[in-house]
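Re-run with default settings, no changes from the original entry. Doing this only to confirm the output is reproducible before filing.
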Amino acid sequence: MSDIFIGLMSGTSLDGVDAVAVRFDNGRMALLGEAFVSYPLAVREQVLALQQVADNELDRSARLGNELAQLYAAAVQAVLQHAGLAADQVQAVACHGQTIRHAPQAGYTLQIGNLALLAELTGIDVIGDLRSRDVAAGGQGAPLVPAFHQAMFASPATPRAILNIGGIANLTRLQPDAPVIGFDTGPGNMLLDAWIRHHRNQDYDADGAWAASGHCNDALLQILLAEPYFSAGVPKSTGRDLFSLEWLAARLERFRLQHGDIDAANVQATLLALSAHSIADAVTRFAPATRELYLCGGGVRNGALCRALAALLPGVQIAATDALGLPAQQVEAAAFAWLGWRFCQRAPGNLPQVTGASGLRVLGALYPH
């Protein structure tokens, strides 16, 4: 049986599907190919709409799941072509699905995408539903990538941390003399993307240029940082259920009642500072020994955000995960390929000290082709 797996990741940024093909050999991973399939605007809008309670949710989510399966299948075909592979050379596709609700406090996290249809379309076994077993065991179901970070990036001598900056940012502490911990620090790109989409009809703030054109408002920043999530202990995870435009609007209203109006560019600059400060505070609080911080995810392309992080963490060497041999844009998809590989070995994929689950669990469900 081949040890080649395809990992598919579509996260909270809602930009599209990242796909990688990897080979595992005695735990070592070799990247064979990668691809990206963008989300059409209509799909992005449907995902956002399902974040809110509304009519006819069951039908809308089922139909969107079918559309997502088609996009996932296109990503599989693209990565097969890039890697020069045939479908029968791949043991399984590990698909994260698209999160539409994340409520571990209520005992569930929900990712959609018709995985049975994906198996039908690709002719490859599909492994999905990778979060719910951890939640069933009392965990947050997130983040799941720290186990992969530990397997691929840990150093026996140097205290490191891995920071994924997607829609939500998550941090993994890899310290030789301490257990691995990982958690969501708060918003990464999510609020930045939502604010520029609302005001400029752009999907993201390229290189943080719009934020850099404004000025951080310290009073607004303190209102935003007062969100209890930031001071909560670990384990913890979050998502669009909390950090939405509605969340921001309520705090902007509080600011305006006290200080008056604020320019949209200055709000963007303050949102960038919120991401940077919440990340840096998390490093200082939970991983103070960190000497090397490796970045992955879409936020790596936001130069203004990376510079802000460097200014807040002057004693920490900051670089992209490319320096460790895995390109920053491919880490999360590779992590889910790894989780698929672990599932096929019936080996656990979670870290209880990260998620809060009652023990190690094999994660996922199999949809044979």
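The mean pLDDT is 96. The first strand starts at residue 4 and ends at 9.
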